[in-house]
Amino acid sequence: MVDERLPQPDAEDIELVKVMHALGDPVRMRLLSVYADGGEHSCAPEAVGLGHLHKSTVSHHMRVMREAGITTTRVAGRNRYVRLRRDELDARFPGLLDALLKSLP
Which PANTHER family match (predicted)? Predict the structure, then answer.
């Protein structure tokens, strides 16, 4: 079984407007807080504290974050694992993630 990554922008192509737009939703901010631990997370809604949402809704939010360059998604067979692109985002927009994470309740 070969792991692969779903399409995402290169680090130098991540745009602040797209990042901020993606994080302008409370569900995606919740996901950001989960991903901020630096680990790799399953896409199962229950695994990220969103068991009250339909799987397709959670999938949509994860796709928006990936396409904005906030996360990376690794495919392993039928499973998907998401990780925050912390190093790339910190290099591109120093202090942004820290400020966003501090703003969470």
Answer: TRANSCRIPTIONAL REGULATOR, ARSR FAMILY, TRANSCRIPTIONAL REGULATORY PROTEIN
Cα dist. 28→5, 16, 93, 96 in Å? 20, 16, 18, 15
Listed in sequence order, the residues at least 6 apart from 61 whose beta carbon sits closer than 8 Å to its beta carbon are 25, 27, 28, 31
User: In the predicted model, is pLDDT for residue 2 greater than 60?
Assistant: no
Contact between 97 and 31 (Cβ < 8 Å) = no
Q: Any idea what the Cα angle at residue 30 is, between residues 5 and 100, rounded to 5°?
A: 95
Q: What is the pLDDT of residues 23-71, one digit of tens each?
A: 999 999 999 999 999 999 998 899 888 989 999 999 999 999 999 999 9
CA dihedral (48, 101, 18, 82) positive or negative: negative
pTM of the entire predicted model: 0.91
